[in-house]
Give the backbone structure.
Amino acid sequence: MKPLLTKENFKCDRYCGECCKKMLVAVSNKDIKNIEKLGYKKESFVMKDVFNSKRKFLKKEENGWCVFLEKEKDGKYSCKIHKDRPEVCQKYPFFPGTPKEIKSCLPEDLYPNVFFKMPSRK
Ligand code: SF4
Ligand code: SF4
């Protein structure tokens, strides 16, 4: 039986991109500065929370994917800014409130009550 995932043993091993397709990623000013240093213009990757202009998120493509998500030739997904990805992405899937042991890192398994309207596992 596959061992449960913990903060200590977790390593993304499928590169399915599901988290980057479905989750909304909050970014801090520090995250934004780090990404700008790579040459990206803020307007190209940041969107404001319509309910709270102080909160900012990574922009999504029309299909729901994070703007930095890329599909590789082998069908796996990668992050164009992996080394400088936002803190939220570095911490995924373990946040305050996440159980210490989880069976899966897929968004629909972690948050079964959330409706993800974007296509999955494609
Ligand atoms: S959902 Fe899990 S396996 Fe898929 S890319 Fe995200 S962390 Fe990796
Ligand atoms: S920044 Fe990278 S790791 Fe974070 S959601 Fe976008 S593609 Fe995924």
Q: What stands out?
A: Strands lie at 26-27, 46-49, 52-58, 69-71, 77-79. The chain is about 20% helix and 15% strand. Helices lie at 18-22, 29-36, 42-45, 87-91, 107-110.
